[in-house]
Amino acid sequence: RSTLGSLVHALVSESGKSEAQLLNELENIWEKLPFDAQWYADNEQVRHLEMLATFLRWRANTRGQLTEIGTEVDVDGLVGGG
User: Comparing C-alpha atoms, which of 24, 42, 20, 22 is closest to residue 33?
Assistant: First the structure.
């Protein structure tokens, strides 16, 4: 299970890819994963495709709502020891 979670996290960290690309990538990788039973592999694949699609919709719908709360700013000056 942790391998599957790591796979999904790795895919969502690739922010430059479209939803279709990420779903396709998950399907391609899925074919190479070892499962003891085909019914279990099929069930888990559907579940993980839905999780990935749900996350990607959430991310797309909330990009305009999230606010950056801090940035680094270069400042010229000296810091005194004290």
Answer: 42
Q: Helices (H) and strands (E) in the chain — how many of each?
A: 3, 0
Query: Are 52 and 11 spatial neighbours (Cβ–Cβ below 8 Å)?
Result: yes
Predicted confidence (pLDDT) per residue in 4-26, tens digit: 778 888 888 876 788 899 999 99
Q: What distance in Å separates the CA atoms of residue 68 and residue 58, rounded to the nearest whole number?
A: 17
CB 5 within 8 A of CB 26: no
Q: How far is CA 21 from CA 11, 24, 34, 52, in A?
A: 10, 5, 22, 11
End-to-end CA distance of the chain: 52
Structure tokens that stand for 15 in this block: 């922010």
- pLDDT 10s digits, 21-80: 999 999 999 989 899 999 999 999 999 999 889 988 888 888 777 666 777 888 888 877
Residue 38 token pair? 């085909």
